[in-house]
Amino acid sequence: QVQLVQSGAEVKKPGASVKVSCKASGYNFKDYYIHWVRQASGPGLEWMGWINPKSGATNYAQKFKGWVTMTRDTSITTAYMEVTNLRSDDTAVYYCAREGPIYTSAFDHWGQGALVTVSS
Amino acid sequence: QSALTQPPSASGSPGQSVTISCTGSSSDVGAYNSVSWYQHHPGKAPKLMISEVSKRPPGVPDRFSGSKSGNTASLTVSGLQAEDEADYYCSSYAGLNNLVFGGGTKLTVL
């Protein structure tokens, strides 16, 4: 079955960086885009961007351009999302999600989420 | 791009129907049939309930249905059950490879 398993919770100081991983299994990793979505304190999901695992091409929401980087390692079917220069309002649960059905902008499978806490 | 507009809360009694709206613009909801709906229980991963405006993924009860008119999409939950109580989010393709979410609606089953 399709699974996306994310790395664990992290605590970082302001100005630091964090890299969250998303290990995919149960399907052909290269065939489906991986998106990243975050939920800060309170309700509300925020789309961050996507990576095409086949080509490595990325697209970021305007807000995250320049300080978020999405990468992948096809040899271990894992996607990564790195946030640099962390601020307190980056404290959030970060989710990876598979876009499926293909080219529908829908996310049919999600990781369990990774809590990133930014605190001095 | 701006977030899609959802009512912050909705409620209904068991067995009743409730409809949650999701209002965007002619650049997102009105322009594309790529509206999705997610159910999110706190502490768990969101679950896809509707894709492409009205398509239910396998395993989603037919009590959940989606529609769209102009710049507004809607999710209707019929025959409300206790387990339907959750946060619901809409999302839409917004052009230029971008996507936007709604602010979320907390559904309470009375």
Quick structural gist:
Chain A is mainly beta and 120 residues long. Helices cover 0% and strands 50% of the residues of chain A.
Describe the structure.
The complex is a heterodimer of chains A (120) and B (110). Chain A is mainly β and 120 residues long. Helix content of chain A is 0%, strand content 50%. Chain A is built from no helices and 11 strands. Chain B has strands at residues 9-12, 18-23, 35-40, 47-50, 64-69, 72-77, 86-93, 99-101, 105-109. In chain B, strand 3 and strand 4 (47-50) form a beta hairpin. The model of chain B has no long low-confidence stretch (mean pLDDT 95). The chains are: A mainly beta (120), B mainly beta (110).
Number of strands of chain A: 11
Q: Tell me the overall shape of chain B.
A: globular
Helix content of chain A: under 10%
Order of helices and strands of chain A: EEEEEEEEEEE
Shape of chain A: globular
- Tell me the radius of gyration of chain A: 14 Å
Mean pLDDT of chain A, as a whole number?
96
**In what range is the share of β-strand residues of chain B?**
35-45%
